[in-house]
Design brief:
CATH class: Mainly Alpha
Radius of gyration: 17 Å
Shape: elongated
Largest sheet: none
CATH superfamily: Ferritin, core subunit, four-helix bundle
CATH architecture: Up-down Bundle
Structural class: mainly alpha
Number of helices: 5
Number of domains: 1
Helix content: over 70%
Bound molecules: MU-OXO-diiron
Number of strands: 0
Distance between the termini: 32 Å
Length: 164
């Protein structure tokens, strides 16, 4: 059993995870449009991963007996600038998600809701990995700047990503 306030906060987080998923699909479509098909693959897998995050929260809410209210998912942008700007947007988005998850964790601790706190710690750890992975991609993109061969190499590498 979780509090009404926590339920509401998790409905919001569920929506944010769906938005994340939608945002990554929009980024993937944009990269396909730019012919960065490796980056598009990477971002499409990220879209699937975010759906997994949403499902994790959804399943938890169901287990806790919540009557889940699904909210409208905002429309993501359709253009993101250069390939570097795409991944900068991703990092910025993940930093905002980390902040939200930290705030939710604070709320769970305040309510002595350890079950929800445990759920949230999985997400907090996941954020560390996501920010680090995107940060590494950004570093490489900054290194090669506009060099076509370098960009091709990075795109190939991103194309090798598979879901683990
Ligand atoms: Fe659901 Fe990108 O964290």
């Amino acid at each position: 059993m979780i509090s009404d306030a926590m339920e509401k906060s998790l409905f919001k987080q569920l929506n944010d995870e769906f938005y994340s998923s939608y945002l990554y699909l929009a980024m993937s479509a944009y990269c396909n449009h730019l012919d960065f098909n490796g980056a598009a693959n990477w971002l499409k897998l990220q879209y699937e991963e975010e759906q997994g995050h949403a499902t994790r929260i959804y399943n938890y809410l169901i287990e806790q007996g919540a009557h889940v209210e699904l909210q409208a998912i905002p429309q993501p942008p359709s253009s993101f600038g250069t390939i570097l700007e795409v991944f900068n947007s991703s990092l910025h988005h993940e930093q905002k998600m980390t902040e939200k998850l930290n705030n939710l964790s604070d709320q769970a601790l305040k309510e002595k809701d350890h079950a929800t706190y445990n759920l949230l710690q999985w997400f907090v750890n996941e954020q560390v990995e996501e920010e680090s992975t995107v940060g590494d991609i950004i570093s490489k993109l900054k290194l090669v700047k506009e060099d076509g061969y370098g960009l091709l190499m990075i795109d190939n590498e991103l194309g090798n990503r598979t879901l683990v």
